[in-house]
Amino acid sequence: MPAPSAQPIRTTASIAFLILLSLLSSVWMIFTSPKPWHIEANSIAARSDKRFAAVKAHLPANGIIGYIGETCDAALPDYYLAQYALAPLVVDRSAHRAIVIGNFPDAPPSEISADLKLVQDFGNGVLLFAGKETK
Amino acid sequence: MAIALAAVICLTSGYLLINFALPDSKPSRSLQVMKLSLAAGFGLGISSIAFFLARMFGTRHFVVFDIAVLAAIYTLRYRARVHSSHTFAAKNAMDFEFPRWLVRVLIAAFVFAFMAACYGSTMRAIAHPHGDGWDAFAIWNLHARFLFLGGSHWRDGFNALIPWSHPDYPLLLPAATARFCSYAGINSPMVPAVLGLVFAFSTLSLLVSSLFQLRGPNAALLAGIALSSTPFFAEHGAAQYADVPLSFFILATIVLLHFGSHLEPIIQSRRLNRCWTLAGVAAGFAAWTKNEGLLFLTALLFAFCLFSITKRSKNSAGEFCKSKQGLLAPAVLGSIPILAVIAWFKHSVATSGDLWSTPEVMIHRILTPSRYGIILRWYAKEFLRFGGWWIFPGTVLLVAFYFLTRGKDLSEGDPLLRASVTALTLTLAGYFAIYLITPLDLYWHLRFSLNRLFLQLWPATIFLFFLSVGRRAPLNFSK
């Protein structure tokens, strides 16, 4: 009888190896995915669309508005979320606009430029100011 | 109802365009799946261009543009049907030859891996309705909002005042999202979520069905298992980023180029190979999806310039192409209309990108040896950890598989295969060059983008891997 070829055994082993490790990875994917009985939608809508829904009614349909918020780097996402919520308005991170949005989700502002006049406080750290257009 | 109409127009236009190139007489089931997968991505690409043009011309009647584009493609398809037809000469005799029990194991493993990927992607899409990561809403969905809600002021969104939103990024995904929202009349986060899943599963089904056609079921199932089991692919499919859509168009380009070498025009007067024209369209859509797509298109053209000057060309079934048609001309012809739209966008709407500095600064960075070392280390590290695989990285697994199943290599003299590999390698080299000159912090840039760049090339890499491995001498278990 001819000796069995080593090639099919090696191929079977490598296929089995590939399948086994792939399936382990698939099982891992199932375990690390959000569970249907415990899905918590992330907070983007709450931090953007919902927070700015009230102030949107008092803003023009388009154009450029100013923005003030906390100045640290950690507050940058708040600015991005404000732009996301207020599109198609362009939100310029500057106080030198006729209309300026204040966004202070964590604490009220300690100091506001004298050029800005508070028009309305919408609560939840969202403020609307009238400013001086200098751009 | 309106959104169903949008989906039907989108899929129909994609399917008609695909039928322009791929034969439709008695198609096999896998060819039908392949055509539907391609139709989904192409349809989204076509409808995004139509919507963008409607915005550029300032008309609110985007439906008219949709129908005009559909009619144009139908006319093209009708004329093509009248004047010529193609026969498909795929050979799958070079597939792995497995015993029946192993084929059953393969099928079961593929079904499990596919279901796990479906589950993982869908759960993530539900948990992250606005996308999983900052780029989703700060770039892609924000641009979609400007296109949908901005009316005649949509250009405001591509303003130098918000450079962090990358106003130079192409608009395939945002325009496709805005088009569906316009049909629906509401700005729903469901739209980009569903589009992300459509691209992810079209990529997977295109990979499996094309390999089924070109190699056979066993190589196709193995490739399907490899991609479905890549956790990063499944996660990112639901992230609402543009990397998976780009990976779809890169894969579609490579697949169509290889299909082109199997098609034999019956009517010799038809000089242009339609599959290669369609490959050019796919490469154009890649460039319309992300700036990296432009890099891929350039790398592809360069690699295939080399291919086209090769005298004797074999197709990927190992046969010499009977027709001596050039590949570059039809591919370039296919990409030109989309490149024209991109040029228009870049010239009249987009601001300049943030990756360029003054020539002196860029030369200084290029001449800094430590940057090379850092980038090389990250490339090596990413190779070992790419994909988020559990226990063993998928990249290493494929390399191990290659050496363990090594038989007599029949792929010598296949310039198409080599040119495709060269194109992907050049794209990786292009990414390397971008990291060299980037004005951003190098570590930060590598950390937040390199895995996604690998992901863009991953499905095409798996396709070429199993195309190449499957074509080596059949491993006969009956010995």
Question: What does this molecule look like?
Answer:
The complex is a heterodimer of chains A (135) and B (479). By secondary structure, chain A is an alpha/beta fold. In chain A, 37% of the residues lie in helices and 18% in strands. Chain A has a five-stranded mixed beta sheet, covered by helices on one side. Chain A is elongated and about 80 Å long. The model of chain A has no long low-confidence stretch (mean pLDDT 86). Chain B is mostly helical and 479 residues long. Chain B has one domain (2-85, 95-266, 273-470). A two-stranded antiparallel ribbon of chain B has the order 1-2. The radius of gyration of chain B is 22 Å and the shape is globular. Chains A and B meet through helix 1, helix 4 and strand 2 of A and helix 4, helix 5, helix 8 and helix 16 of B.
Query: Can you summarize the main beta sheet of chain B?
Result: 2 strands, antiparallel
The separation of the N and C termini of chain A measures 92 Å
Mean pLDDT of chain A: 86
- Determine the structural class of chain B based on helices, strands and strand pairing: mainly alpha
Largest interface, C-beta within 8 A: A-B, 51 and 64 residues
Largest sheet features of chain A: 5 strands, mixed
Task: Please compute the radius of gyration of chain B using only Cα atoms.
Answer: 22 Å
Strand order of the largest sheet of chain B: 1-2
Shape of chain B: globular
Count all strands of chain A and give the number.
5
Q: What is the spatial order of strands in the main beta sheet of chain A? A: 2-1-3-5-4
Spans of chain B of at least 5 consecutive residues whose pLDDT stays below 50 are 316-324, 473-479
